[in-house]
Amino acid sequence: MPFAELTRVRDIREHTLNISPQPVITKDNVEIRVDGIMWARPRTDVENIKRSFYSIDDWKNACVELTKTNIRNEFGELTLDESLIARVRISANLRKVLDRLTDDWGLKVSKVEIQAIDPPMDIKHAMHKQKTAEQERRAMKLHALGKFEAAEQEKLATIQKAEGEREGQIRVAQGRAQAIKLVNEAAEKYFVGNAKDLKKLEVTENSLKGNSKIVLTENGISPQIILGSIPVSSRQ
Q1: Which domain range does residue 221 map to?
Q2: C-alpha span between 189 and 197 (Å, rounded)
Q3: Is residue 164 part of a domain?
Q4: How confident is the model at residue 123 (pLDDT cuts 50, 70, 90)?
């Protein structure tokens, strides 16, 4: 009835609620600042819409304050190191808890996100130094590993080179041995009958080198040698 009844309209779309930064004490007594964001809306059925009007005066502000309280509870059960790596788990836990607590208000919490976790400045500096030291340690380890691998490669190359040289020497020696074998076999086969003549030629060659006198015969050079200036004893 106009002027007698009051009509109220409830927006059942998803609402974005900002959780301002607030101080939180972790399990190991470190104070950090945490801020987040959440998405909530009234449920779509008539009964829950009535609850959103009559069970709570300002459902948006109530959701924000309730989220702040539960953020403190969640981080209070974790150490600083655990808090820094458990952001996804904390967000999931907050969504479940807030969705259950706001059910009496006819609300649905769809999602909660932790946007930032800000440790104190001195802890930031300590974490930065630790991170830098860790990176330097890894760099030194990689450098040492690279030098070790390079030394191993150089050692392997030296061994392979030595093995190659030794193999070459063995092959050269084997080739020489084979050549000597072939020469000996050829000598035994072709020069046995001429050994006497070869000996005569050797004696004659040595005589000529010493500027000695020799005897010529009808058959050629006689191996009879007259050394120095001693006269010939006979002529043929």
Answers
A1: 193-226
A2: 16
A3: no
A4: confident
End-of-domain residue from the set 71, 101, 125: 125
What pTM was computed for the model? Answer: 0.53
Token digits of residue 16:
């974005």
pLDDT digits (tens, 9 = 90+) for 198-220: 655 565 566 555 555 555 555 55
Give bridge partners of residue 41 from the DSSP assignment.
108
Distance (Å, rounded) from C-alpha 48 to C-alpha 42?
A: 7
In a domain, 38, yes or no: yes
Nearest Cα neighbor of 110 from 123, 97, 95 is: 95
Smallest CA-to-CA distance from 38 within 105, 100, 95, 116 is with: 95
Domain containing residue 97: CATH number: 3.30.479.30
User: Does residue 133 sit within a domain?
Assistant: no
In the chain, what's the furthest Cα-to-Cα distance?
175
Q: Which two tokens stand for residue 69?
A: 């309280």
- The neighbour count for residue 94, using CB atoms within 10 Å, is 24
pLDDT band, very low/low/confident/very high, at 232 (cuts 50, 70, 90): very low
Give how far the C-alpha of residue 80 lies from the chain's centroid of Cα atoms, to the nearest Å. 31
Same structural domain, 118 and 31: yes
| Total domains in the fold of the chain | 2
- Tell me if residue 33 falls in helix, strand or coil: strand
